[in-house]
Every structure is written in structure tokens, then in C-alpha cells.
């Protein structure tokens, strides 16, 4: 039987410091994560015409037909997370790291495979808590279509990928100042109106 392949925009997301959070409060962390997924993350994915491929315990994998929809969804998830858990101490807050890639994938009913997925997962690992990293391919597709500034982090060698991947960190709207001397990792999404659509 031949494999089904398609070009897809892929979001890989996980919770920064999940093992530490679970060690401190297993039941509470699990309940809070499920609430974030149910009340924010899954709703945003559906709103932007994506599909959750699978949950990964402390995160998820989602695919979109449009890379613009995928990046906008990622930005809105991170913006929405800023306002959640206002009474939880900073060190106990749940913060997602998100990677977005565009690539050819092998499709099964409950999973997707291939380098496109692997790169998204590696991009997520490069992001700071509350941050988003995208590949150069994604940046080329969205740079004239979305109002977000993308900070060039250069080429990064990533595990199990033959060639280096160009990585960009989403920094908010283009009209906001981006400090070129800032650490070259994906900073958390700005508080305030940076990612709100006009």
C-alpha cells in the first residue's frame, strides 16, 4: 500500500520544565495543563483550521494546511497564556515552547512522520518558555503576510537532520523595537498588545 504524503505546516509544542512542575505538584500540574489545552490551545487550533494530530503527555503535535494559519495560531496561544494563571507564582506557571515548520510529511490517521515533523520538534526545543521558533521556510512564507518580527538566530545543527536549519524567533509586531543584542533564543511573547490582530 502506498504511503499518503502531503505538504503541511506543523506545530510542535511542549511545556517548559514539565518534569520539575510534575515533581512539585503532579495532580495540580496535570489538571492545569489539561485546562490550558481544553480552554485555549485546542480552541485556537480549531479556530485556525488546524488539527491536533496527537497529544504527547506534556504537549502536542498539530498540522495546518496554511503556514500563515499555523504561525498566527502559535502567536495567539502564547499571547493567551500570558493572561492565564495570574495567581500562580512565576516558577510554577505552565509555559509552552512552540516550534513551527513547513514540510512534506507521511500521514497516518493518528500521527504524522518525516523530517518536517522532526524539524518542528527541534525548533520547539530551541524556543524559550513562552517563545516561538520557526524555520527559514516558514519565515519565507509568512514575512509579507503577518505583522510579526522574526529575529534571525542563524543556522542551527539539529539532531537527526542532515543539513543545518535556519531558525527565526518570533518577537512580536514588526513596529516594536527588537534589541539586536538580545540573547539569540526565542524570547517569550511580549505582554501587552504586541500580538493582537488589528
Question: What descriptors fit this protein?
Answer:
disordered C terminus; 198 residues; eight-stranded mixed sheet; alpha+beta; 32% helix; single chain
Describe the structure.
With 198 residues, the protein is an alpha+beta fold. It contains five helices and eight strands. Helices cover 32% and strands 31% of the residues. Strands 1, 2, 3, 4, 5, 6, 7 and 8 form an eight-stranded mixed β-sheet that branches. The radius of gyration is 16 Å and the shape is globular. The model is unreliable at 175-187 and 190-198 (pLDDT under 50).
Unreliable sequence segments: 175-187, 190-198
The rounded distance between the terminal residues' Cα atoms is 47 Å
Q: Can you give the helix content as a percent range?
A: 25-40%
- Largest sheet, if any? 8 strands, mixed
Number of H- or I-type helical stretches? 5
User: Helix/strand/pairing class, anyone?
Assistant: alpha+beta
- Would you report the number of β strands? 8
- Mean pLDDT rating: 87
Strand percent estimate: 25-35%
Global morphology: globular
Which sequence of SSEs, written as H and E, runs from N to C? EHHEEHEEHEHEE
Cα-based radius of gyration, to the nearest Å: 16 Å
Structure summarized in a few sentences:
With 198 residues, the protein is of the alpha+beta class. It contains 5 helices and 8 strands.
Q: Topology, please?
A:
Blueprint: E1 4-15, H1 18-24, H2 26-47, E2 50-55, E3 59-64, H3 67-82, E4 96-108, E5 111-113, H4 115-126, E6 132-135, H5 136-142, E7 148-156, E8 165-173
Parallel strand pairs: 4-6
Antiparallel strand pairs: 1-3, 1-4, 2-3, 4-5, 6-8, 7-8
Helix pairs in contact: 1-2, 2-3
Amino acid at each position: 500500500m502506498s504511503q499518503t504524503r502531503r505538504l503541511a505546516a506543523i506545530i510542535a509544542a511542549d511545556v517548559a520544565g514539565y518534569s520539575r512542575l510534575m515533581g512539585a505538584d503532579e495532580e495540580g500540574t496535570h489538571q492545569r495543563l489539561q485546562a490550558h489545552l481544553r480552554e485555549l490551545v485546542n480552541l485556537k487550533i480549531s479556530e485556525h483550521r488546524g488539527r491536533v494530530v496527537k497529544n504527547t503527555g506534556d504537549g502536542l503535535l498539530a498540522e495546518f494546511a496554511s503556514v500563515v494559519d499555523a504561525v498566527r495560531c502559535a502567536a495567539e496561544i502564547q499571547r493567551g497564556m500570558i493572561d492565564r494563571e495570574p495567581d500562580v507564582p512565576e516558577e510554577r506557571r505552565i509555559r509552552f515552547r512552540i516550534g513551527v515548520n513547513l514540510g512534506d510529511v507521511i500521514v497516518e490517521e493518528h500521527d504524522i512522520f518525516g523530517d518536517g515533523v522532526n524539524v518542528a520538534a527541534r525548533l520547539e526545543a530551541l524556543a524559550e518558555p513562552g517563545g516561538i521558533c520557526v524555520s527559514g521556510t516558514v519565515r519565507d512564507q509568512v514575512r509579507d503576510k503577518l505583522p510579526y518580527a522574526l529575529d534571525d538566530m542563524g543556522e542551527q545543527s539539529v539532531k537527526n537532520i542532515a543539513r543545518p536549519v535556519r531558525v527565526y524567533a518570533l518577537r512580536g509586531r514588526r513596529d516594536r523595537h527588537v534589541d539586536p543584542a538580545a540573547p539569540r533564543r526565542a524570547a517569550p511573547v511580549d505582554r501587552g498588545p504586541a500580538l493582537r490582530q488589528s
